[in-house]
Each structure stands twice: as structure tokens, then as C-alpha cells.
Design a protein that fits this description.
By secondary structure, the chain is of the alpha/beta class. A five-stranded mixed β-sheet has the order 3-2-1-4-5. Strands 6-9 form a two-stranded antiparallel sheet. The longest helix has 33 residues. It is globular.
Length: 348
């Protein structure tokens, strides 16, 4: 069976497609509209074993579902940070993807099924509402600060105090402006309640929801966010892979690791240079695990674990990072095994 490697450079209205054969020779280059029927027809008409690659982006999840029935394999990849030389065009990008796919150098990004995508959309709906509320609240305080009016605390947002706060503004235009912001805030609060209700209701459909809620630092929101982002624990073979994905792993930088002594090659005993945490990570998961760690160290047994690390001379931020890693590992192991959280196993 003839094997074909397809690289697609996806855009809003068109896709540039480059097809290579098993020898790396270009079979075809074409531009078609970004429409499900046309894309399926093109891939189906190639014949043989078709392997497709395109970059992760806004339309990647949709395109993955569109081409999954007609392609032998689909690789949705993240090429952010890849070093490229020369010019950059749609044709060059598509051909580069096809060549990398043929050589097996592309790393696939997890996509999940439609159920996970539905759950993930609910998570983004809730988080976007929370972010919009924060922006409006900051905007309200900025208006008062622009007139030199102290407004620390949350009292400026309460409905019972708004009339008094608005009267402090010296001009009608600023009063109108802050009044409109108050209306936006009230609307977003109602939207947040509704989004949270639907989001948590969907999370309760997953059996792991009850397991996560018993882990210290995990409440309903952090539990639902973890399930929606990860989808399945079997994505990660080891806990270190989850650490990297969550931005909790340390980036190492070494060079010239070996030396020759008496005609034999030995690994040098030198300290590995660290360069901070992994730069590419899922921001939602990092927010979840770091927030859970900050909450967990307020109560036992993590309070004692955190205190002992501080007594050993570990910096507080590194001790908190260790707690976040442990919580990530606990969540991954319990999810895979379907077991409940056990404090005795943690202390042992």
C-alpha cells in the first residue's frame, strides 16, 4: 500500500496542502477552502495510507474530528520554539510539516474526544467569565484612583455602597462611566453563577470527581478544572511528564557531560545548571496545583511536611513547588487506580 504524508497549513478561509510520497517526493500542492466536505474529499481521494499533520490552534480540534474518519493517522503538533531558517510562507510551512511527519520528528498534542471537548468548553466559559469580572473590577477601582479617591478593599463593589461611592466622583461623565461598569459587573456575576452551576454539574458525571474532592487543597472548581484539562490520566506514563505539562518541572541545562580518564569514558561529577521551570506548560493546571498547594499547607498533614522542608533550609517557594508536585502525583496515581486519598500512605 502506497504511503502518503500530508502537511496542512490551516487558515481561517483556506488551507494549503502539501502531499509527499514515501520517498519524500512532492506529489501535489494545492489550496482549498477550509470546509469540512472539501477537506474530507481531498484526503479520501489520495488513496493508500494517508498520514496527516497540522499545527495546534483555534481550528485544530475541529479539523481533527473532520479528518479522523478518512485518514490513517493524524498528528496535531506544537512547533512553537522550533528553529527555522530562511523565508516563511504557507507552502514552506506545509512542506516542513510533511517532511517532519515523514521522518517521525513531530510530537503529537493530545486532542481527546467530543465529551472532553464539551467539558473543556464549559471550563473555558467559566474561566473567561471570571477573568472578565476581574477586568471590570479593576476598571472600577481605576476610575476612583484617577480622582485620588482611596478605594482599597471590596466595599466599593457592594450594591449598598454604590450610591455613596458614585457621589464622590466630581464630574457626571465619570459617574456615568463607573455606573456602566457596575452594570457590567452585575451581569457578569449572574453569568458566573450560571456557568459555575453547569460546569460543576458536568464534573459530577465523572467518578474521579469524588476522589479528587478528598485530596487536600482540591475543591469543586479545582477538581473540575483538572478533569477537564487532563481528560484521561493515561496521557502521562510517569508523574514527571505531568509535572512538565503543568509547569512544575525544572529545566536543566548541561553540556560536555563526559570526559576521558585513563582511556575510559566517565560521566563528569558536576552540578547541573537549572534554568527555572519549564517555559511551555498548561496555565490552567499550574494555577490549579499551585493554588491547591497553598491551600493544603494550611492544614495537616501538608502543614507539617511544608514546615519540615523549611527547617531543612529549603526556600519557601521551592518547598511550595514540592508540595504542588506531590499533589499532582497523588491526583495522577489515584485517578489511574481509582482509589480514595489515604493520609497513612502519604505519610509512609
Amino acid at each position: 500500500m502506497e504511503i502518503k504524508y500530508v502537511g496542512i497549513d490551516v487558515h481561517q478561509s483556506t488551507c494549503l496542502i502539501v502531499v509527499l510520497d514515501s520517498n519524500g517526493q512532492t506529489i501535489s500542492e494545492t489550496v482549498i477552502a477550509t470546509q469540512a466536505e472539501m477537506l474530507r474529499a481531498f484526503i479520501s481521494g489520495l488513496g493508500g495510507a494517508v498520514h496527516v499533520a497540522f499545527e495546534v490552534g483555534t481550528q485544530s480540534a475541529w479539523l481533527y474530528e473532520v479528518l479522523k474518519p478518512v485518514a490513517n493517522s493524524i498528528t496535531v503538533c506544537d512547533v512553537h520554539g522550533e528553529k527555522r531558517r530562511g523565508s516563511k510562507t504557507d507552502r514552506i510551512d506545509a512542506r516542513w510539516l510533511a517532511r517532519k511527519l515523514r521522518s517521525g520528528e513531530l510530537k503529537a498534542v493530545y486532542q481527546g474526544d467530543r465529551n472532553i471537548r464539551r467539558f473543556r468548553d464549559l471550563a473555558h466559559a467559566y474561566l473567561s467569565t471570571v477573568r472578565d469580572m476581574t477586568r471590570v473590577m479593576n476598571r472600577i477601582k481605576a476610575i476612583f484612583r484617577s480622582w485620588g479617591i482611596p478605594c482599597s478593599g471590596a466595599g466599593v463593589y457592594y450594591k449598598r455602597n454604590r450610591e455613596n461611592w458614585i457621589k464622590l466622583l466630581p464630574i457626571a461623565e465619570s459617574q456615568l462611566r463607573v455606573g456602566l461598569s457596575y452594570c457590567q459587573l452585575d451581569l457578569l456575576r449572574e453569568q458566573k453563577k450560571e456557568a459555575k452551576k453547569i460546569f460543576l454539574k458536568e464534573a459530577r458525571r465523572y467518578p474521579v470527581d469524588r476522589i479528587f474532592r478528598k485530596i487536600p487543597g482540591f475543591g469543586p472548581i479545582r477538581t473540575a478544572l483538572t478533569i477537564s484539562v487532563i481528560g484521561t490520566p493515561h496521557r502521562f506514563r510517569r508523574n514527571r511528564q505531568l509535572w512538565c505539562y503543568s509547569g512544575l518541572a525544572i529545566k536543566l541545562d548541561t553540556s560536555a557531560e563526559h570526559e576521558v580518564i585513563a582511556g575510559q569514558i566517565w560521566k563528569k561529577r558536576k552540578r547541573t545548571n537549572t534554568r527555572g521551570l519549564t517555559p511551555d506548560y498548561n496555565r490552567i493546571l499550574k494555577f490549579v496545583y499551585k493554588g491547591a498547594a497553598q491551600q493544603a499547607i494550611r492544614k495537616e498533614p501538608f502543614r507539617t511536611i511544608y514546615r519540615k522542608k523549611i527547617e531543612k533550609g529549603i526556600r519557601p517557594e521551592m518547598a511550595l513547588l514540592t508540595i504542588a508536585r506531590r499533589l499532582a502525583t497523588i491526583s495522577l496515581v489515584l485517578w489511574k487506580r481509582g482509589e480514595a486519598f489515604n493520609v497513612a500512605k502519604l505519610l509512609s
